[in-house]
UniProtKB/TrEMBL annotation:
This is Substrate-binding domain-containing protein. InterPro entries: ABC-Tungstate_binding, PBP_domain. The keyword Signal applies. Pfam families: PBP_like_2. Residues 26-252 form the PBP domain.
Length: 284
């Protein structure tokens, strides 16, 4: 009898352990991997949006903030479920190659060229970004590039090309290989120029001794899209989670948050909501 009781107790313990483990697994939040740009992270926007999404959806979001190029490389390898990026030409290629589905317009801000207050290259008042980078090159003034295949880096390379200048290898041209916030810190320390999205610059302005010297050029538009990674390419992609996040980003509630983010602190929004707009309205 005692032997039977011991065996039964052992069975009960095992069953209790199994049920408990199953309950814990069921209660554990579902994981979602978001590959996004450093600008959405450095601006502080994700600090507001991610907790709201997690609370609403029950997902736990692992955010990996890298350049847009690196984010898409992760998508191509199946290392992310959903992307929030800002490199339109590369995004289109990503979609054509079948790595993404449901590319949707989320928001925009703009790029600006910043530099030290004494402005050694005399950029202040320059009307076009191409003219501005020519002045930097001809004056030999220090320019800090992210050099990381990000959306910002892709835009910067377009500026040099439009100006007919090969900056690579020049003494005045330095690549940090860092994100936007860190690159701005280096530019401030070295008193150099840099291309940045306005949102990150404004978020860090208190600790930077850099001024906006060139802005308003239509070629400096900075547009963000959300892209779900194609499950046909990678069967382990969290399809439901990716769609939930993408739907969340273009929802009316979140678009309103995006449109007011930064107003209380800077007197103007850091991003402008675009969900539902036709790409041609932004010149895309």
């Amino acid at each position: 009898m005692n032997r039977f009781k011991k065996m039964w107790c052992a069975v009960v313990v095992v069953l209790t352990f199994i049920v408990g483990a199953a309950s814990l697994a069921a209660a554990a939040p579902k994981a979602l991997i978001l590959a996004t740009t450093t600008s959405t992270q450095d601006s502080g926007l994700l600090d507001v949006l991610i907790p709201a999404f997690e609370k609403q959806s029950g997902y736990f979001v692992k955010t990996i903030a890298v350049g847009s190029g690196q984010a898409m490389a992760m998508g191509k390898k199946g290392e992310a479920d959903v992307l929030l990026v800002h490199s339109p030409d590369d995004e289109k290629k990503f979609m054509v190659e079948g790595f993404g589905v449901n590319r949707r317009l989320v928001m925009h801000n703009d790029f600006v060229i910043v530099g030290p207050p004494n402005d050694p290259a005399k950029l202040r008042g320059t009307k076009t970004s191409a003219e501005a980078v020519k002045k930097i090159a001809h004056s030999g003034s220090l320019f800090l590039s992210r050099g990381d295949n990000s959306g910002t880096h892709a835009k910067e390379k377009k500026l040099w090309k439009a100006a007919g200048i090969n900056a690579e290898g020049q003494k005045w041209y330095q690549q940090t290989g860092l994100g936007m916030g860190e690159t701005l810190n280096v530019a401030a320390e070295k008193k150099g120029y840099a291309l940045t999205d306005r949102g990150t610059y404004l978020a860090l302005i208190k600790r930077l001794r850099l001024e906006i010297l060139v802005e308003g050029d239509p070629s400096l538009l900075n547009v963000y899209h959300v892209i779900e990674v194609n499950p046909v390419k990678w069967s382990k992609v969290n399809v439901a989670g990716a769609k939930a996040f993408a739907d969340f980003m273009v929802s009316q509630k979140v678009q309103k948050i995006i449109g007011t983010f930064g107003v209380d602190k800077f007197g103007a929004p850091l991003f402008f909501p675009d969900a539902g707009k036709k790409p041609e309205t932004l010149g895309l």
